[in-house]
Structures are given as C-alpha cells and as structure tokens.
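idk why but the lab printer keeps eating my pages so im just putting this in chat instead. protein + zinc ion:
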Amino acid sequence: NEDGMYLIDQHAAAERFNYEKYLKQLGTHDNHMQDLLIPLKIELTNQEAIILKEKINKLIDLNFEIEDFGINTILVRSHPYWLPDYCLEEAIRKIIDIVLSEREFDPYKFTEKVAITLACKMSIKANDHQELPALEDLLERLRNTENPFTCPHGRPTIIAYSKYELEKLFMRSMEK
Ligand code: ZN
Ligand code: ZN
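predcted complex ->
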C-alpha cells in the first residue's frame, strides 16, 4: 500500500489463525462428538499401550470415545467435532503422541501443545499455490487474531518495509 510493502509468510499466518481457533475450541469443553462411521484402529507399541492406559482420561476429557481392541490396539469411535476430517488419523495420532510424551500433566501446556501441533498440521504450506481470494481471506483472518504478528512458535508472520526503507534500499536519495 502507500506506506510500504508487507511480506507475509502464508504458513505462519494460517498457523496463527488456526492456533487461536483450536485453543478456543479446546477451552470450551463443548462436548459435541463426531461418531466415526468406521472406527479408527490405532496400533501402539507395548510401551505406549501401558502409558496410554494410565492417561486415557486425558483423551476422554477431550471428547474421544475409545475402546480397547486387543493387544496394543485401541479403537477410536468418536472424536471431538472440531477435528478436521481430511487428516483425522494423523491428527488423532499427534494428540496421542502428546498425551504419551507429557510427563507431568499440565492442562494448560497440554492444550497449548495440542493447539500448536494441530495448527501446524492443518495450515497451508509455504509453497502451496493460493489464488488471490484465498490469500485475501487469509489476511482477513490474520487481522482478526489476537496476536497477528507471530505464529504460535514465535516466528514473524509479517515483515514490513516502509516506503523510506525501500527507497533507501534502491538508493534513491543518490539521484536527488
Ligand atoms: Zn508450522
Ligand atoms: Zn510456526
């Protein structure tokens, strides 16, 4: 625009928006569940199965419906409604991994970790081609976030060059 130029990292921008969205959804304790037509079978290692048994409540708290299914296998029957369908298995596996890796359980940190991981997974990649309307949409979403300037990992979403800086870079003052 007339003030200068803005470079925006589309992955970081989408990630910021998705992060705040997931954080909100994780915090609402809305118990809407989505039943799976075909329950999802997840295989675990011996070790994972033992740890998960102790921590299964964390998944239930998040609105997962889970059943034991033979040795080292669980069956996911329902999941929280806000998990996206298109990469469901991966998202569920990520959440289980976070549950497994959490030593001292801090609900705030857990929620944040889940939100960051899902947001990263669900956001467009840096090199994904986007049409202009989709990019304008992304900007609008970014504008409405609480902290539009960094992604949840702390990377900048926007780099701004003022008109003055651009002119300096092109050494325009030399011609005056
Ligand atoms: Zn990311
Ligand atoms: Zn990030």
